[in-house]
Amino acid sequence: MSHFRFSGVSVTTPAAMDSPTSGDTSVRDQVILAPFDLELTEARVVVLGPNGSGKSTFLRLLNGLSAPSAGTVSVDGFDTVDAVRDVRQRVAFLFTDPMSQLVMPLVREDVELSLKATIKNSAARREAALAALDSVGVAHLAERSVYDLSGGERQLVALVSVLAAGQRVLVADEPNTLLDLRNTNRLRRIFRSLPQQIIFATHDLDFAQDADRALVFDGGKIVYDGAAPGGLAAYRDLCSAEDLDAR
Ligand SMILES: Nc1ncnc2c1ncn2[C@@H]1O[C@H](COP(=O)(O)OP(=O)(O)OP(=O)(O)O)[C@@H](O)[C@H]1O
């Protein structure tokens, strides 16, 4: 498993969000993630928390999609800012919106693109792409346009494409939001069987219980770090307490 180390990490609103015309700096330095230290080495880590609690921001730190405002994040000793290339060779990112990452018009072509670095022969690459699609039960979509797929179909194809690139860690931001129960169960089986280390955010508590470790965020702070059953309980408590506050 890869070793993620967060040292004195915090994230504040990026200066780029300041309004250049009004000079309004009121949005600057709003805390998105409060300072924290953390090490992650488990095979399956779930990230839970209410909307806007900081889950996606945390996940984006894992492969350098976002940089910390303070502190450092490293993966197997590679800094996610200074050595982002090495980090991205290790850590793949699956976006919530599959259209953020499907770049080729045809499903098969998109998977082939992910395989390009590892399989030079085009016939072998096509065969491998079809096998990868088949492993997730979507080989029948191979010749379809990504624009004509349903949301759930796109989410599964995006997963195949990301996995085909072969990184040893998969970071997945709410990977089953568009999936029905059958495909969610399929995704859970796939996640259980993959050799990759997987760090994923979800609002699906059944899915969350498959993890070896849970982190629960609230208001940009890690309010629970431990086994999944305790994480689910902490998240439920947090949400029911908010319901009461709102009355
Ligand atoms: N670039 C940014 N500029 C300003 N605010 C931001 C920026 N990125 C994130 N935020 C804010 O930080 C907070 C945390 O956002 P984040 O996307 O990490 O939440 P989340 O837990 O993933 O939420 P959800 O469950 O709704 O996806 C939110 O209030 C969001 O509006």
TrEMBL record:
<dbReference type="InterPro" id="IPR003439">
    <property type="entry name" value="ABC_transporter-like_ATP-bd"/>
</dbReference>
<feature type="region of interest" description="Disordered">
    <location>
        <begin position="1"/>
        <end position="26"/>
    </location>
</feature>
<dbReference type="GO" id="GO:0016887">
    <property type="term" value="F:ATP hydrolysis activity"/>
</dbReference>
<dbReference type="InterPro" id="IPR015856">
    <property type="entry name" value="ABC_transpr_CbiO/EcfA_su"/>
</dbReference>
<dbReference type="InterPro" id="IPR017871">
    <property type="entry name" value="ABC_transporter-like_CS"/>
</dbReference>
<protein>
    <submittedName>
        <fullName>Biotin transport system ATP-binding protein</fullName>
        <ecNumber>3.6.3.-</ecNumber>
    </submittedName>
</protein>
<dbReference type="InterPro" id="IPR050095">
    <property type="entry name" value="ECF_ABC_transporter_ATP-bd"/>
</dbReference>
<dbReference type="InterPro" id="IPR003593">
    <property type="entry name" value="AAA+_ATPase"/>
</dbReference>
<dbReference type="GO" id="GO:0005524">
    <property type="term" value="F:ATP binding"/>
</dbReference>
<dbReference type="GO" id="GO:0042626">
    <property type="term" value="F:ATPase-coupled transmembrane transporter activity"/>
</dbReference>
<keyword id="KW-0547">Nucleotide-binding</keyword>
<keyword id="KW-0067">ATP-binding</keyword>
<feature type="compositionally biased region" description="Polar residues">
    <location>
        <begin position="9"/>
        <end position="25"/>
    </location>
</feature>
<dbReference type="GO" id="GO:0043190">
    <property type="term" value="C:ATP-binding cassette (ABC) transporter complex"/>
</dbReference>
<keyword id="KW-0813">Transport</keyword>
<comment type="similarity">
    <text>Belongs to the ABC transporter superfamily.</text>
</comment>
<dbReference type="InterPro" id="IPR027417">
    <property type="entry name" value="P-loop_NTPase"/>
</dbReference>
<keyword id="KW-0378">Hydrolase</keyword>
<feature type="domain" description="ABC transporter">
    <location>
        <begin position="4"/>
        <end position="244"/>
    </location>
</feature>
<dbReference type="Pfam" id="PF00005">
    <property type="entry name" value="ABC_tran"/>
</dbReference>
